[in-house]
Design brief:
It comes from Amphritea atlantica. This protein is mostly helical. It has four helices and two strands. It starts with a helix and ends with a helix.
Length: 124
């Protein structure tokens, strides 16, 4: 649930940042395409979501630490490879997982790299 919430808020942060300005150095690429009212509203939403994101990320990290301390289960490796540790009575062993194929890796990385390049090439 937290991942979905954080991703949704990041999407809102992205959309509102594209339409707002800080009136000093930076204006979003769509700032001139929207009116002053929309831009002002987008700026307010952008600032509010920024604070909310900071709070939720802090709570998320705190929950991970508390879960490790209270239950002794490491959640960070599970977030990285997507599999939780098996909890036996005496010891914990990793679930067997298949290696990631180069095709799957490229399918994930190439579009992300292309999108990032496109974002940074937008004239501001």
């Amino acid at each position: 649930m937290m991942v979905i919430l954080l991703l949704g808020l990041l999407g809102i942060q992205l959309a509102t940042g594209m339409m707002s300005t800080d009136d000093i150095i930076w204006s979003g690429p769509f700032y001139n395409a929207v009116g002053e009212t929309v831009s002002a509203l987008a700026g307010e939403i952008h600032e509010t979501v920024q604070g909310l994101l900071q709070l939720l990320v802090g709570l998320h990290i705190l929950a991970i630490v508390l879960y490790k301390v209270k239950f002794g289960e490491p959640l960070v490796p599970a977030m990285i490879h997507g599999r939780k540790l098996k909890q036996d009575r005496d010891n914990a062993e990793h679930c067997e997982r298949e290696p990631v194929s180069i095709i799957k890796f490229l399918i994930a990385v190439v579009p992300a790299a292309g999108f990032t390049y496109w974002l940074f090439s937008i004239p501001i």
